């Protein structure tokens, strides 16, 4: 578990005495049947890392069928042999399982181009709470026969069943971070600024085309236009894959770099693109008002409790990662911060979890992003599919 | 109701004595509450054509919020003022409601570019069977808080609730039809072939780019390559919007033209792209084996019961519209044809409804495309959300 996924994760420990590593859907089903009949809660962790085979790749349609325990980066690597690529990419790609990506409805940096997993996932194999295996591993692009039940499991965080197999549409990549994110990253990691000087905001754009000269002409045209009208001050274009990787490394190291200067409250918010800058400034005002932060001081030497407030994310789809670096996590500050942020987001009709799910920490805050009726409907679905409540208990839905 | 949606629709008549035209979600809710408490079935048709307002268009994100009764073509026309376009387009655009598109999980000709409605729909407002209003009209691109309950209503054909409001992601179009489809269309509509002579297969490709010269260069390059390697025999490129509309008209008139030569069994199938040609030929073999068809005779003068078998559709996403023109619909032939097609599709793990839903006609055939477990899960969801069974009864799920 990563410290940075959430403010209070630092205090979380698993209590399971048993971790099982099934090698097949049938074994997973047998485990669920057993634990269901025993009505034991919180005792079994099922790790699917041994279910990591790719079963088929259809080069015509791009449909790939694989086990849920496959690691995202391994899939992308394998697909590159077929000139294909995954519809999602994220910082944790070297360790995250595709099944976990689906269960948490992961977003990531290709979202703006390929859209959500609700569109990309073609089928799932799921072990239901009663041990039944729902084999829905369709490779069809289109299917309008009945309710699209697989959609329920995308983002359900395992509370309705265990995703063991995945059919996903693959394909043949924009980003934002502010001055402080960049400054912290360069200092924390002792990296060199690829631009001549520091600027207030940085945008990462990755394009993909079929014709190098055309692509170059278009991007250079855009640069010139944006520079002429004053939208951008400076820019750099990667000249090869190596340079591209170096630039991306900066973006992917932001959170790691934050850890050099304290403990970080890392929030994953969805809000209108026009409010992405506003919320960062409003939070700074709020924290200064509390006397715990001073924006004129450097995060390297500030004696205040809050060292710095930074924002970065996916500007194209309104997904802001908002970070507060503090000396040390404190429950009272957590409460204050959450109240401010969640109310702020509720007023904007935003979401308190854009791409990392609800998990154990946010169920009681679900009402900030979802209506009473929606939560009731979720509860009806949860109770009807998992009447014994054995699937990933205490997650997602508020305890009644 | 259109004759061509299905073989047996010609014999279908509605029996409702009351058609209501609510002008708001609240009125719709009041109707549902009333009919729920009365437990009257099959008596009320709710027509949302008076709920046809666009509420907001966000030019930054492309999110549009509108009433479910808006007509697809009107939405596209209105969006064009903002340089935006709908993520779906289909032949019925001049009359179909966006709410109906969503309830039937409509596909259409932009699917290959923009993907499924499960990815494009950002939020829905739904009147639930108990009259509750689920207001889920989010305009967020990303939201991972809990089950994505709106997904259940996409393609549920009204059996779980009535979609009254829609939030959808708009954006700033490939097709296939065989010789006989083209021949029937040209003859039936007395149109001129845009190419010098007839060919076995026709592909319609619509591209969209930001740079006219680049786009032209690429498409001409593709033409040359495909002609050199013998993939294509001839081609024509629309020189302006008028000519483009004329070419598209041919594609969109195929079904209308079929009606000049008899009654048409029109099937909407999803199958691997590599099998699209095979199934047409296998069906011809099957019908010739039965003695009801002779492929050497012209559909204009054949004395056989089956005049012609044609295939057209969306080759890019494996969606084939397979058509059998007969003298007159016959129940015994319907049974024979359905058995052949549904078993064929089941063997290929295809779907018997790619983009037109299940409706009243196909519930008993659902098992050809969905597993026992999936149908059980759909039934659990249906029963838990609509315990009285008042929403669009007898549709989608097989009667138990």
TrEMBL record, chains A, B:
PROSITE patterns: FAD_PCMH (PS51387). Belongs to the FAD-binding oxidoreductase/transferase type 4 family. Residues 1-173 form the FAD-binding PCMH-type domain. This is FAD-binding PCMH-type domain-containing protein. GO terms for molecular function: D-lactate dehydrogenase (cytochrome) activity; FAD binding. Keywords: FAD, Flavoprotein, Oxidoreductase. One of its GO terms (cellular component) is mitochondrion. SUPFAM superfamilies: FAD-binding/transporter-associated domain-like, FAD-linked oxidases, C-terminal domain. It comes from Smittium simulii.
């Amino acid at each position: 578990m990563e410290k940075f996924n959430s403010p209070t994760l630092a205090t979380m420990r698993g209590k399971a005495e048993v971790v099982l590593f099934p090698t097949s859907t049938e074994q997973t089903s047998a485990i669920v049947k057993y634990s269901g009949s025993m009505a034991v809660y919180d005792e079994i962790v099922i790790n699917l890392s041994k279910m990591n085979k790719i079963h088929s790749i259809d080069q015509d349609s791009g449909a790939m069928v694989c086990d849920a325990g496959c690691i995202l980066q391994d899939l992308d690597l394998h697909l590159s042999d077929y000139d294909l690529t995954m519809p999602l990419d994220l910082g944790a790609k070297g360790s995250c399982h595709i099944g976990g990506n689906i269960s948490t409805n992961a977003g990531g940096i290709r979202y703006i181009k390929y859209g959500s997993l609700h569109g990309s996932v073609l089928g799932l194999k799921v072990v239901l709470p009663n041990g039944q295996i729902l084999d829905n591993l369709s490779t069809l692009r289109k299917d309008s026969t009945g309710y699209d039940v697989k959609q329920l499991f995308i983002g359900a965080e395992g509370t309705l069943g265990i995703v063991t197999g995945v059919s996903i549409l693959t394909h043949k990549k924009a980003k934002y971070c502010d001055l402080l994110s960049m400054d912290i990253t360069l200092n924390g990691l002792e990296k060199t600024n690829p631009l001549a000087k520091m600027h207030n905001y940085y945008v990462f754009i990755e394009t993909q085309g079929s014709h190098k000269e055309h692509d170059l002409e278009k991007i250079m045209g855009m640069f010139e236009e944006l520079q002429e009208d004053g939208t951008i001050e400076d820019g750099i274009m990667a000249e090869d894959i190596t340079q591209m990787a170096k630039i991306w490394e900066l973006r992917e190291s932001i959170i790691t770099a934050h850890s050099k200067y304290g403990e970080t409250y890392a929030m994953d918010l969805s809000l209108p693109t026009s409010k992405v800058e506003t919320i960062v400034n409003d939070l700074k005002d709020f924290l200064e008002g509390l006397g715990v932060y001073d924006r004129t001081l450097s995060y390297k030497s500030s004696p205040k409790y809050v060292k710095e407030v930074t924002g970065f994310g996916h500007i194209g789809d309104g997904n802001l990662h908002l970070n507060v670096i503090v000396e040390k996590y404190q429950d009272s500050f957590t409460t204050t911060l959450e109240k401010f942020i969640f109310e702020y987001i509720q007023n904007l009709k935003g979401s308190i979890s854009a791409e990392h799910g609800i998990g154990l920490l946010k169920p009681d805050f679900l009402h900030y992003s979802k209506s009473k009726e929606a939560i009731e409907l979720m509860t009806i679905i949860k109770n009807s599919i998992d009447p014994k409540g054995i699937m990933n208990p205490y997650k997602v839905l508020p305890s009644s």
